[in-house]
């Protein structure tokens, strides 16, 4: 693990659940923090040790690097890991821009190594059960989706939120991957986008921690709306915002010719979808019918390790991460230039996780 910041705790808690991986070492630019996090992690990850970044890349017992650095360092760390002969799984986004993401995947291909990319929340029971419902035909043919995420800003809870307002972040690059990766998982690749983006002149002030009360600059658009066209013909509307104090807009809904699926929050793993159909016109909760049960951040790392062992394709792959990155980049271009943008890359829908037969999904809804 390279990067021992706030998000590392979630991975440290999850990785011991999966026998396909063992957390061997933790590195950070701050050696003191790396040592402190490794000491805490040792309770559930026996044998984990703190190393410098250089020592971690040189270690013979490390096969895969989990890249939890800030977005601006994602490409540098990924390329160094690949150069050292190690597979890489990184936090989202894969890179600050498509050019950087392509460099990572090209280096991996040249070295015969695999790249994985967050979010892996799409592998949990929430999104996978929604996919199983959609694929079962319960709501008929898919027509489109409406996605809406918003908050007033991460400075209200994060003690060092500045990087959320720099290139490679903002509401679209920070939260968009959860929703766009879910949309690709449901509908397939994106072929075209259009959109609009803006930002307010509201002063951003840190609310908690040692720097509470300090202001900081905003270098990204803080309210983004897009129209996303998928290869299967479905059309999704997507809004990501750091300008939203309150809302009554549904977070994530999928529309079909025979009904609607209320998809649970894709930033978590195990919430329950609901479905409404013309045959049974009331909302019904659907218990998990697919996906990794009780998953947490790190299940994508385990899935990648399993792919290495079995010769299969990882589900939370770098190819998928690059496609979503291109979609986000194109949304901003479309907004700034007031036009639609064709997406050059494509990706297959990742293999479903433990999907039950379609009939089971239909039967549960009919109960």
Summed up:
This protein has 2 domains: 8-117, Rossmann fold (3-Layer(aba) Sandwich); 122-292 and 318-342, 2-Layer Sandwich (Dihydrodipicolinate Reductase, domain 2), CATH 3.30.360. The protein contains 10 helices and 16 strands. It has helices spanning 8-14, 31-41, 53-58, 74-83, 98-111, 125-136, 170-187, 299-310, 318-337, 358-366, and strands spanning 25-27, 49-51, 64-67, 87-90, 115-117, 142-150, 190-198, 204-205, 215-216, 223-230, 235-241, 252-256, 259-262, 274-277, 284-285, 341-342.
**Sheet having the most strands:** 9 strands, mixed
Low-confidence stretches: 357-367
Number of domains: 2
Task: Give the CA-CA distance, first to last residue.
Answer: 45 Å
Structural class: alpha/beta
**Radius of gyration based on Cα positions:** 20 Å
- By DSSP (H or I, 4+ residues per run), the number of helices equals 10
Query: Mind telling me the CATH superfamily name of the largest domain?
Result: Dihydrodipicolinate Reductase, domain 2
The proportion of strand residues reads 15-25%
Give the strand line-up of the largest sheet. 15-14-13-12-6-11-10-7-16
Q: Topology as H/E string?
A: HEHEHEHEHEHEHEEEEEEEEEHHEH
| Average pLDDT metric | 94
Overall strand count: 16
CATH topology title of the largest domain = Dihydrodipicolinate Reductase, domain 2
Overall, the morphology is globular
Helix content: 25-40%
Indicate the CATH class of the largest domain: Alpha Beta
């Amino acid at each position: 693990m390279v990067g021992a910041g706030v998000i590392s705790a979630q991975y440290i808690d999850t990785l011991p659940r999966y026998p396909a991986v063992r957390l061997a070492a933790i590195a950070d630019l701050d050696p003191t923090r790396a040592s402190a996090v490794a000491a805490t992690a040792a309770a559930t990850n026996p044998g984990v040790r703190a190393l410098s970044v250089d020592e971690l890349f040189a270690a013979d017992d490390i096969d895969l690097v989990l890249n939890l650095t800030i977005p601006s360092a994602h490409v540098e760390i990924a390329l160094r890991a690949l150069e050292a002969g190690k597979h890489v799984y990184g936090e989202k986004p894969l890179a600050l821009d498509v050019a950087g993401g392509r460099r990572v995947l090209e280096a991996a291909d040249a070295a015969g190594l695999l790249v994985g990319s967050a979010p892996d929340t799409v592998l949990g029971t929430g999104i996978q059960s929604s996919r199983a419902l959609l694929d079962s035909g319960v709501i008929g043919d898919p027509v489109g989706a409406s996605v809406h995420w918003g908050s007033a800003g991460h400075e209200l809870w994060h003690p060092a939120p500045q990087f959320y307002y720099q290139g490679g972040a903002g509401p679209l690059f920070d939260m968009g991957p959860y929703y766009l990766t879910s949309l690709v998982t449901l509908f397939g690749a994106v072929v075209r986008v259009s959109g609009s983006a803006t930002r307010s002149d509201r002063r951003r002030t840190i609310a908690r921690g040692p720097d509470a009360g300090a202001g900081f600059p905003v270098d990204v658009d803080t309210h983004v709306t897009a129209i996303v066209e998928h290869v299967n013909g479905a059309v999704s509307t997507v809004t990501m915002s750091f300008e939203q104090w309150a809302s009554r807009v549904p977070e994530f809904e999928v529309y079909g010719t025979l009904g609607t699926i209320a998809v649970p929050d894709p930033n978590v793993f195990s919430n329950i979808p609901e479905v409404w159909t013309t045959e049974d016109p009331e909302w019904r909760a659907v218990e998990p019918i697919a996906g990794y049960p009780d998953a947490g951040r790190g299940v994508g790392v385990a899935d990648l390790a399993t792919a290495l062992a079995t010769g299969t394709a990882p589900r939370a792959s770098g190819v998928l991460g690059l496609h979503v990155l291109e979609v986000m980049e194109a949304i901003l271009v479309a907004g700034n230039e007031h036009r639609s943008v064709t997406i050059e890359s494509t990706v297959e829908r990742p293999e479903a996780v433990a999907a039950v037969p379609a009939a089971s999904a239909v039967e549960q809804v009919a109960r």
